[in-house]
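Collaboration report, partner site 2.

Our partner group contributed sequences for two proteins of shared interest, and the home lab folded both. The records are reproduced in the order in which they were received, starting with the first partner submission.
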Amino acid sequence: MHPLQWLGQRDRDFAALRRAGRTAIVMPAMFAVGDKVIGNAEVATFAAFGSFAMLLLVDFGGPMAERLQAQAALVIVGGVFVCMGTLAAQTVWLAAAAMAAVGFGVIFAGVVSSVLAGATTALLLAFILPVSLAGPVASVPDRLAGWGMAGGAALAAVALLWPAPVRDPLRGAAITACRALAARLRSEVAYLLSGADRQFAHDRDHAAGQADHAVRALHRAFLATPYRPTGLSTAARTVVRLVDEVTWLNTIVVQSAQRAEGAVVNRAACAVKNAAAAVLERGADLLEVTGGNSDELHAALAKLTDALTGLERSATADLPVRRVSSGSGPVAAPVPAPAPAPASEFITSLDPSFRAQELSFAVSLIARNADLTAGAERRSWRARLLGRQPEGLAGTLSAAQERAAAHVERHSVWLHNSARGAAGLGLAVLIAQLTGVQHSFWVVLGTLSVLRSNALNTGQNVVRALLGTVAGFIIGAALLAVIGTNTTVLWFVLPPVILLAGVAPAAISFAAGQAAFTLTLVILFNIIQPAGWRIGLLRIEDIALGCVVSLVVGTLFWPRGAGAALRQALAEAYADSARYLAGAVNFGMLHCDGGKPAPAAPADDAARAAAAARRLDDTFRTYLAERGAKPIPLADVTRLVTGVAALRLAADALLDLWQRDDGQAAGDRTAARNEILKTTELTKAWYDDLAGTLINGRQPREPLPHDKTADGRLIEAVRHDLLGEDGKASATAVRMIWTGGHLDAVRRLQTAIIS
C-alpha cells in the first residue's frame, strides 16, 4: 500500500499531517529567531512551545474568517494566561491554586462551545508553561514576546500553509438527509395515489432505504467528535438542532407509511406530505448556500400551513360521528344514526390525518432552524459585532449561560471531568514545585496527557505514556550518542522529528506520539543547553511523577467514569422529558377550557428537559470515547439516547398542537379530558419507572399495552360531548383524538427503547 493511502486511512483528510507540517516549519523558525537572532532563552522557549500549542494542539474549522478569529482569540487569551501564570508562579500555594482554578475554568468552558473544547489543551499549555517554569516577574515581557511571535506566525501559517477546505460535515449530512426524506415522502404519496402500482412500490422502497441511510450518516457525523459539535455562532447552534429533528421526522415518516389493509387513501394527508416534501427541499436549498434568501422557504411553509388547515377541516368533516345511509353516501344533516360507528373505525379514520399533522410539525421545526441559520448568516458585520440575533433566537451570551447552567449539576460528567482535571493539574504543580524537579512543566503535561474519565482508562494511558516516553528516551539517547552535542545537526533533525510528533498520535498510537514528543523535547533542550541523554532521563522521571498524580486523582475522583454517569444522565433525561410531556398535555387540557383564562406554557419543564438532554449528550460522548468493554451494549445505549429526543419532541408537538387551538369549542370537555389525563398519568409513571430501573439496575417493566377500552371511552366522550352544531366533530374534538395519538406514539416508543 502506498504510504499516503496508509496515512489517509488513519488520518482523515490528512488533518494531522497538515497541522504537523505547519508546526515542523514554524516551530523551528520561531525557536531560531528567539535563540539565534534575539538571543533570549525565554523568548525562544515560549516562541517554540507557543507555536506547538497554537498549530499542533488545535485545528479550528469553518470558513477561513472564523478560523482566523478563533486563532486570534487563542493568541490573546493565551497571552493573558502567560502573564497570570508567571505572576502566580512566584508563590507555591498560589501557583497550585491558580492552576486548579484555570484548569477547571478552561475545561468546563468546553461545554459551551466546540471551539472552546477544541482549544482546551492549547489554552491549558499557555498557563502550564509559565506557572511551571520558574522566572521573575521581570520575565513577563520576554515570555509575552515569545508567545506573541508564535501567535503571529500561527495566524499566517493557518491562512497560507495548506489551508484545509471548509468542512461542515454536520450541515452537509443534514442537507442530504432532508433531500432524502423529501424524496421518500413524494414516493410514498405517488405510491398511494397510483393504487399500489408495483413500479411505484419499488421507487418507494428505494427512497426509504436512501432516507434511512442518510439519517444514519447524519447521526454518525453528530457523534464523531468527543464533544458536542457546535460553536457559539448562531448558525452552528441552529444546525446542530437539526439532528434530533431529522431523526424524529424519519421515525414519523416510517410510521405514517403503515396503512391498515383496505384503508381509503386520505388525500388531505397526501397533500400535507407533498407540501412537507417541498418545505424540506427548500430548506435543503437554503442550507446549501451561505446566507441565502428565505423567500422560497417561506412560500413553501405557507403552502404547508394551508394544507394542514385543509387537513383539520377534512378531519372534522369526515369523522364517522353520526352517519346515515341514503343510497349515495353519508348525509351532512345531523340526524340520528341507527348505531354509532365503532371505535376502531373512528381511530382508523383519524390515523392518517394525525400522522400528517405530526409530520408537518417536525418539518416546520426543521424549516425554522434552516431559516434561522440563513438569517444569522445574512447579518451585516456590524449586526454580528453588536450580537444582534435573528428574531426568536437567544443571544450568544444567553446561549452560553444556558449550556453552562445545564451542567452545574452534581451528576454532570462534564462537571466531574472539569473537577478531576483541576485537581490533577493543581496537585501536579504543587508536587513539581515542592520536589524541585528540573523541568516541572513536564510533570504537569504528563498529568494532563494521561488523565481520563475513569481510573481504568487513566491507568491504561499511564502504561502507554511511560512506554512511549522510555522509547523516545532510548531513541534520543542513541541519536545523541551519534550526533553528540553538535547543535547544527540537531537543528536539521528538529523539523522531521516535530513532523513525526504531530502525525504519530493519529497515524500510529498514543504511545508513539509520546515517544516522538519526548524525542522533540530532548533535541529542543539540547539545542538550548546541551546536556546529552540526561534530558531524556529527566523526562522519564517527570512523566512518571505526573502519571502517579493522574492515577491518584483518577482513583479518588469518580473512578467509575462515564458508565455510571450515563445511567444517571439517562434516568434524569427520561424523568424530566416525561414531566415535560405531562405538562404539555395538562396545558392542552386547560387551554381548551374556554371558561378559564389560558394557562401558561410549561416553559420551566421544557427548559429542564432540554438541559437534561444536553447533559445526556455530553455523557454519551464521553462514554463512547472511553476505551475498554462497554457494560451496556452500544446499540441498546443508542436506542435509549434517541428515545429521550423522541419523547421530548413529542411534548413539543403536543404543545404546538394546543397553542393553535382557540379554546372556543362548544360542549363539555370534562369526560374527554379525564380520559386523556389518565392515559398521561400511566405513561409518565412508566417512564418514571424506567428512570428508576436505569439507576438501580432492575429490569424495566413491560411496555404499556394498547388499551382499546380507554380508546373507546375517549371516543364516546368526544362523540357525546364535543360535537358542533352541525353534528360533526369540532376542531377541539380532533385535537383531543390527536393528543391521544401522540400519547399512543409515546407508548409505542417504549417497545423500541427496551427491545
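Second partner submission, folded after the first:
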Amino acid sequence: MDLVIKNATVVTMNASREVLTGAEVVIQGARIVKVGPASKGRVEGVRRVIDAKGRVLLPGFVHAHLHACQTLCRNRADGFELLDWLRERIWPFEAAHDPESMRASAELTFAELIKSGATALLDMGTVRHYDAVFQAALDCGIRLVGGKAMMDAGQGMPSGLRETTEASVAESVALADRWHGQADGRLRYAFAPRFVLSCSEPLMQQVAQLAKQRRLRVHTHASESPAECDVVREKTGTDNVAYLERLGLLGRSTTLAHCVWLTAQEHRILRETQTSVAHCPSANLKLASGYAKVPELLGEGVNLALGADGAPCNNNLDMWVEMRLAALMHLPRTGPTSMPAMKVLEMATLHGARALGLEDEIGSIEPGKRADLALVDLSGPHANPASDVVSQLVYSGQSRDVTHTLIDGQLVMAERKLLTLDERAVVSNARAHATRLAAQLD
C-alpha cells in the first residue's frame, strides 16, 4: 500500500452519504482500495501513514467552470456588467497573453485551487496558448478538463482573439490530439466555443459533430445576463438553451456555465437532455447578472455543479466561498430549507464530477475511485462548536482549514505546504507578468 490515512472522520459522499468516524482510507497507486474501520495492529508494506485524528477527509472539490487564463487580471475589472466587462477589460487582457504569461496565470490558478482543497477543474482558455495551461497542469499534478476558447464571430473583440472557423476547429482538434488522455487520463480535452455571441453557427455545428465523434465534452456559457439573452434572441430568433439544443450541442457530455435567465421551456430542455449546469454564485453577483433558479433546477433533476468562474469576476477561486454563497443566496426567495448543506456539498463534489464526465472516477471516497482527496482541520474558533460535520464544512469551513490535498493518490500539498509548486515563486512570477501585461494595455 502506498498511503494509509487513519483516524479520520470520512465524509464519503457514497450512495448512502455515510460519514465514518475514526475510519481508515487505504490508497494504492492512484486509487482508493479500502474505506472503513481502522485495521487492527500494524499494516505491513505501507509506505506512508497520515494520522488524521481530529480532521475531516472529503472528496477533493471540483470546479465545473473556470478561466485559468484570466487570473492575472484579478482586481483589475471591477464595476462592470458582463458584456462591457468582456469588451473593455477581459478580451484585451486575454489577447495580450503570450505563452509565458499564460503559464504564470495557470500556475497561480492551480496553486490557489490546490491550497483550497480543489483537485479538478473544467477550464475554458482564451483563443491562444492553451498548451501552456496543459503543461502547467501536467507538471503540478492537478486534474484538468479544458480547451481553448473558440471565437470566430461577434463584435468588440480584439484582433488577437478573432480567428476563422477553420483555424478554430483545426487548433482545437490539434490540442485534443496532443493532450487528451495524457497523464493516465488526468488531462482531458473539452471543446470550448465561448458563447453564442462569439461563435458562428457553422462553428457550433462542427463542434457538435466533432464532440460526438471523438467522445469529448463541450463547455460553453449560456444565459448569463439579460443583455446577452436579448442579443442572442436577435441573432438566432430563439432563446439561448433552445438554440444550443437545435444545433445538437446539449446532452450528458455538455456543461453550460451560469444559466441564470432561463425560460420554463429551457428548464425542460436541460432536464430532458441531461445537460450539466455550472452555478457560479460569486460571478453572478459581482457582474450583477442575477440569481439563477438553482433550487428549482435541482428539484427538477438537473445536474448543478459549482465553479468560481474567472478571478476578475469573483475575485477568489475558492470553493468554500462558492459553497457558502450557494447555500445562502437563494434562501430569501425559496425558503430556509431549500438548499440543505448536503445538497451544496454534492454540488461541489459529485455533481462537479458529473459535469466533467468523471462521475465514475472522482467525487466520492469509495474503493475503486481515484484518490482525489482533501484533509481538513476544523478545530479553529470559526468552525466550533458543531454537531453536524457537513453543516460545519459548508457554512463554517474555509480554505485555510485544508491541510493536505491529494490527486491520483499523490500528495500535492502537505501540512499546508505546496509540494509541486513553489508558492513564493508562483506569486512573484504572476505579479511580474500581470504588471507587464497591464502596462501594454495602458
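Feedback sent to the partner group on the second submission included the following. The first strand starts at residue 3 and ends at 11. The mean pLDDT is 97.
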